[in-house]
Write a structure and sequence with these properties.
Blueprint lengths: L8 H11 L4 H5 L36 H5 L16 E2 L7 E3 L7 H14 L3 E4 L9 E10 L5 E13 L21 E7 L13 E15 L4 H5 L9 H35 L1 E2 L4 H26 L5 H11 L6 H26 L5 H14 L8 H6 L3 H20 L1 E3 L5
Parallel strand pairs: 2-9
Antiparallel strand pairs: 1-8, 3-7, 4-5, 4-7, 6-7
Helix pairs in contact: 1-12, 4-6, 6-12, 7-8, 7-9, 9-12
Length: 417
């Protein structure tokens, strides 16, 4: 049968499968500890809850993907004749449309203008009263209104504050509007009842604030602003334009490479006809998918400070793709798609004489081992012995096949979206 395989799998084929598979993944996901964030009254800022990148809960009582693959027998690609399970059509010289990289001076100017408005603004000191949007440099002391005793974390010198940013508790920033440089004001305020520090929640306080400087954000593009962006090769606007042109061109070339890869694989896959694969081979790719899910779970756990599992990540992926079936069906379908894709790559490799030698695997693994910032292994041999080398052989084979397909593709300049 012919089928369309989601090109989203290519990220896994070309990255995670090669770089984070086998027992190495277990190391990536173990021993990650995060410090608990202590609630303090270090400044008169109102506590706010921080949302993670995903609204998905890390608790799951549904499909246990790890238990699902536990104990399954498996086989490798080397144990099958790939052409028995896939009929290839055109793949050598397949035609695809991919927009060419075309960075214009307008693109460069838009990027610079966005940088000016969104970050790294140039502040110019002014001699007028404070108004909303200004950045003020202030000294302040916070005291309880009843006892006049200073409270911990309520004192600072030389603090920068953007008026209207709502960085501090209600009334603090508004209370400085109209103040002049050198002026001192007493702000009678009340901390919110739900403030994170119990000693301040609901308390009436007085902040004595002195305005040191008042600055406004400049909307003028200047050499001084360009030099202040922190780029090593930029000291003026002309050099900034050259830097941005180079950056956007490199990003465009990277995106072009990715899109070309995806379009080529998509075209070859859609033209192929697949047959039902051996159960043990599907088991292998289901286990590989769990390794990938574990890898991403460890990354999420580290980044967001809460524990994610492979099942959590699977659920998030199914929701993101709008999959209408069960998580088990999504998991099995994704693994089947991945297996079909690898079988297709293997069939092409067999026809084209593309092989991966033990030396190729050693070269790749040595580079990974030597570039690692830390490792739990005492030697390269110990590291290598812990890995399923066939996974690396299959991953490197897929990488070589994709390069072959790209090099031989007939690429037509398509219209950019």
């Amino acid at each position: 049968m012919k089928k369309k395989i989601a090109v989203i799998l290519i990220g896994a084929v070309m990255a995670t499968t090669i770089a984070a598979c086998g027992k190495e993944t277990e190391n990536a996901g173990s021993g990650v500890e995060t410090a608990e964030t202590a609630e303090t009254a270090e400044a008169p800022a109102e506590s706010a809850s921080t949302e993670t990148a995903s609204e998905t809960t890390t608790e799951t009582d549904g499909f246990d993907v790890a238990a699902y693959v536990d104990g399954l027998e498996e086989m490798t690609l080397s144990e099958i004749n790939a052409s028995d399970y896939v009929t290839l059509t055109e793949y050598d010289g397949v035609t695809v449309e991919v927009p060419a990289v075309n960075v214009t001076e307008e693109d460069v100017q838009d990027y610079i203008n966005n940088t000016l408005t969104q970050s790294n603004p140039l502040l110019t000191q002014v001699n007028r009263p404070v108004k909303s949007g200004d950045t003020v440099n202030i000294d302040y002391v916070g005291k309880y209104a009843d006892t006049k005793e200073a409270f911990d974390g309520g004192t600072a010198q030389g603090a920068d504050l953007v008026i209207g940013s709502h960085s501090y508790i209600d009334g603090f920033e508004d209370g400085l509007i109209g103040a002049k440089v050198g002026e001192t004001r007493d702000l009678n305020l009340t901390f919110p009842e739900n403030y994170g520090a119990a000693n301040l929640a609901g308390k009436d306080v007085v902040f004595t604030v002195t305005v040191n400087t008042i600055s406004e954000t400049s909307t003028e593009l200047t050499d001084e602003w360009a030099a202040g962006l922190g780029y090593e090769d930029v000291t003026n606007l002309e050099e900034l334009s050259a830097h941005v042109m180079k950056t956007l061109t490199e990003e465009g070339e990277s995106n072009y490479k990715t899109e070309l890869e995806n379009e080529v694989i998509k075209a070859v896959t859609e033209g192929a006809e697949f047959k039902e694969l051996p159960e043990k081979l599907l088991n292998r790719f289901m286990k590989e998918q769990v390794d990938q899910l574990d890898y991403y779970a460890s990354m999420y756990s580290y980044m967001y400070g809460q524990q994610y599992s492979a099942s959590n990540i699977l659920s998030m992926m199914a929701q993101a793709q709008g999959f209408a079936g069960t998580e088990e069906e999504f998991f099995k379908q994704t693994a089947e798609d991945m297996a079909d894709q690898y079988v297709m790559f293997k069939a092409i490799a067999d026809e084209q004489g593309i092989t991966i030698t033990d030396a190729d695997i050693d070269k790749y693994l040595k580079e990974a081992y030597e570039s690692a910032s830390s490792t739990a292994f005492s030697s390269f041999e110990e590291y290598k012995a812990s890995l399923d080398l066939e996974l690396y052989r299959e991953g490197l084979m897929a990488e070589k096949v994709v390069e072959f397909l790209k090099e031989h593709a007939n690429v037509v300049d398509g219209e950019a979206e």
